[in-house]
Amino acid sequence: AQTVTQSQPEMSVQEAETVTLSCTYDTSESDYYLFWYKQPPSRQMILVIRQEAYKQQNATENRFSVNFQKAAKSFSLKISDSQLGDAAMYFCAYRSARNSGYALNFGKGTSLLVTP
Amino acid sequence: GAVVSQHPSRVICKSGTSVKIECRSLDFQATTMFWYRQFPKKSLMLMATSNEGSKATYEQGVEKDKFLINHASLTLSTLTVTSAHPEDSSFYICSASSVSHEQYFGPGTRLTVT
């Protein structure tokens, strides 16, 4: 079974600064997807960024980028120019690429606090 | 983007009663839907995977007779918590998977059993 580990229960960043959230995973598969989801106080899960394992290029979405190290099984999220609205729980997730019938496997989450 | 709705958003029921939660994909057909449970300040735990027209697949430790899942159409899956107990109080989230394999989450349902 695949496991996803987020070793930082809480992180804090000042507005406009950069913060990196860590995620490691364990799998024997070669083809899979990795995701970062944001869960604000409303508890709606919001997809932040997604990475296909077969792609070497790191995914980026505006202020959000990842550092995907396949050999190390590491998938960190970098948030640049942090904004107050970035405060939320962030979950790293893994999914097999074999078919759409595989659920997401989530890490325990990192609570991000953004200070003015 | 694809939209998934859940109804109700909040529900309070008495111990021993049953409550049904609906999950709908509004603008796409979902061959697979997933039900998750989330305790306060915890991660999402998969309860079951639901495929249209077939029986749901439950995760280990999830009682299938207590958490009844029906996926009668490509746009609707329901979770019924039967004979609810206070320990069933939780936040329940569904997600729906499209043919592109992307998963879209509903807004969740907060269940409180008194």
Helix and strand arrangement:
The complex is a heterodimer of chains A (116) and B (114).
Chain A: E1 3-5, E2 10-14, E3 19-21, E4 24-26, E5 32-39, E6 46-52, E7 60-61, E8 64-69, E9 74-79, E10 88-96, E11 105-106, E12 110-115
Chain B: E1 4-7, E2 10-13, E3 19-25, E4 32-38, E5 44-51, E6 57-58, E7 67-73, E8 76-81, E9 90-97, E10 103-105, E11 109-113
Parallel strand pairs in B: 2-11
Antiparallel strand pairs in B: 1-3, 3-8, 4-5, 4-9, 5-6, 7-8, 9-10, 9-11
Structure description:
The complex is a heterodimer of chains A (116) and B (114). The mean pLDDT of chain A is 94. The radius of gyration of chain A is 14 Å and the shape is globular. Chain A has no helices and twelve strands. Chain A has 116 residues and is mainly beta. Chain A has strands spanning 3-5, 10-14, 19-21, 24-26, 32-39, 46-52, 60-61, 64-69, 74-79, 88-96, 105-106, 110-115. In chain B, strands 2, 4, 5, 6, 9, 10 and 11 form a seven-stranded mixed β-sheet that branches. A four-stranded antiparallel β-sheet of chain B has the order 1-3-8-7, with no helix packed on it. Chain B is mainly beta and 114 residues long. The mean pLDDT of chain B is 93. Chains A and B meet through strand 11 of A and strand 4, strand 5 and strand 9 of B.
